[in-house]
Amino acid sequence: MKKLVVLSGAGISAESGIKTFRDADGLWEGHNVMDVASPEGFHRNPELVLEFYNQRRKQLAEVMPNYAHQQLAELEKNYEVVIITQNVDDLHERAGSTNILHLHGELLKARSVENSDEIIEWKGDLVLGDLNAKGEQLRPHIVWFGEDVPVMMQAAPEVVSADIILVIGTSMQVYPAAGLVGLAKSDAQVFYIDPIPKINYELSQSENLTVIEKTATEGIDLFITQIKKV
C-alpha cells in the first residue's frame, strides 16, 4: 500500500465556512495578529485572547467537513494516509481521517500555561480561573507566533517516507511548515491543488510536481484520478 502524505491548510477549511482569520489588511477578526496569537499578547491581555478563541470554537461548531475532507478520508481504503495540517479545527477528524498531525495545535484542546505537554480536551469557553489539577491557568492549545512547533519532529519523517504528497488549501509560504515538501524523496509524486498557485522554493525543486489550479473541493477528484495512474 502506497503512502500518501497530505499537507493541508486554511483553504480547505475555508470552503466549509471557517474564516481564515487573516484579512487583507493583516488583521485577525479586527485584531492585530500579535495581540491574539502570541505569548506576549496573552500576557498583556489574557481575557482578549481567551475570548478570541472562544469565538473560534463557537464558529467551528457551526460548520461541517466538506467534500475535500470527505474524499481524503475515503482514500484510507487504498492508501496509507497521513494528514499534516496547519489547521487547528477538527474537520479532518469529523470527516473520518484517522492519522492527523496538527502542526499549529488544536482549537478543541487546552493546556497549562506552565507545561505545554499537559494537554486536555476542551470544547466550551475558556476563561481566566479555568485551572488544571495542579491549579495552573489553562490556555488554548495553539502554537502562537514565536513558539516552537513540536509536532514538526513527527511530521518530518512522515514526509520523508511518502510515495505521494498532496499540498491542498495552503500556499506553503509559512515556515517551518513550508519546508516540509523539501524533505520528500526524489521519486515522490507531488501534487499541489490551489486556485492561485504560488510555487515556493521547495515545490520548485520537485522533479515530479503536478499543479491543479482549482479549489480543494474542485480539484480533489482530479487528484484522485491522477494518483490511480501512479
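Above is the first protein from milestone M3; the second protein from the same milestone is given next.
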Amino acid sequence: MSEAAFPVEPARARHARLGYLMAASAAILWGVNGAVSKTILATGLSSERLAEVRSLGAAAGLLTIVAVMAPRRLRIRRRELPYLIAFGVGGLAFVQWFYFLAIHRLAIGVALLIEYLAPLLVALWARFAYHEHVRRRIWIALGLALVGLATIVDVFGGATTLSTPGVAFALAGAVAYAVYVLLAEHVVGGRDPVSLLGFGFLLAAVFWAAIAPPWSFPLSALTHDTSLFGHLESVHLPVWGLVLWMVVLGTIIPFFLLVSALRHLSASRVAIVAMLEPVAGAFVAWAWLGESLGGLQLGGAAIVLAAIVLAQTAR
C-alpha cells in the first residue's frame, strides 16, 4: 500500500500539469506494487519478512537521498524521538503488515478500498478527540463509504464470500493508516517528509528485526525463480528481482514523486490524485493476476471511491 496522504508543508504551485503527472505516476506505481507484493507472498515469504525487507530497503534509499541532498536533516531532536518511534512502528510497520496480510486473502482492489477509509477515520478522530468542526460533506462521505463497503462484502445478500480475516486485516490497516497520518501531522511541522519517511521506515525495520531476527531470514527464498502467476504464468523471474522492484519502484520512487508533486500542487489535490491507487491496483490485478470483481462489488467500489474523493475535497 502507498501510505500516500501524509501531511506536508503548504506547497507553492508552479507547474500544475507536472505535479499531476508526478502524483498520478506515484499512484500507478503503488497500484502495480500491489500485484508485485502479492506475487512475492505467493512464493511462501511471510508478510512479516516482506514488510521487514521493504522497510529496510526503503530506509536505506530515502535516507541516502537525504544524506546527499540535505545532510542536516539527518539530525534527530530528542523531543522528536517518541513520535518518530510511534510513527515508524504504530504507523508504517503496521500499515505494511496489515496490507500484506489483507492482499494475501483478498482481491487487491477490495483491500485497498477498505484501507482507504483512513481519511474518514481521521475526520472522526478530529471531531470527537480534538473537538474540531468537521464539514458536513465528511459525514456524507462516511455514510457513502459504509454503504459501499456493505455492498462490496454483500452483507445482506450473502452471494459473495470474502475472507473474514482478510477484511479484518484490511480494516486494521485502515486504522494503522489513520494513526500514521495523525502522527505524521504532529511531526512534519518541523521535519521534511522524505527524512520523516526515511526514519520511519528505519524504525519500522528495527521493529521487524526484533520480531523476526535478520540472521534467521530465509535468504535462499530470494534466489529462487518464481512464476508471475495469472496471465503471466509462463514468465519466471528471480524473487530478489521482484523484491528489488517493490523497494525501488514500489516505494522509494513513488514516495519521491509524490513529495516532488507537492512543490507544484496543494496537499489536498495530490491526495485526490492518489486515489488512482485503488483503481490502478484493481486494473493491474485484473490484467496480470486474473482477479475480478462482480457487478455488485464494482458498484460498491464506485461508491467507496466517490466517498473518498468527497472526503478529500472537504479537507
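Note on the second protein: Confidence is low (pLDDT under 50) at residues 5-13.
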